[in-house]
Amino acid sequence: MNSERNLIVSIVLLIAGLGLIFGYSHGSVNLSAAYPISGAALQVDLKTTGLPAIAGLAATLLGTIFLIVAAVQAILAQWPLSQRTAGGSSPAA
Question: Buried b / exposed e across 34-46, counting CB within 10 Å, b at 16+?
């Protein structure tokens, strides 16, 4: 697979995983703004139970792995194949 396909798969898996986790969660979000800024607080309390928790975590982890693989493939694709197989020597100009 090339990096574009891996990127698409990673995005789909991340959206599905996080969608399951947040879609079936029970909890609350609390934001309090204060002056001075050091008194401001954000509190997130989420709880996901059952199959969506397991499936969401698995899909999110797979999506993260695919995203890392796609990034490595994209970085390696920036160098010509001759430089990667010939030990990194540059062609004579």
Answer: eeeeeeeeeeeee
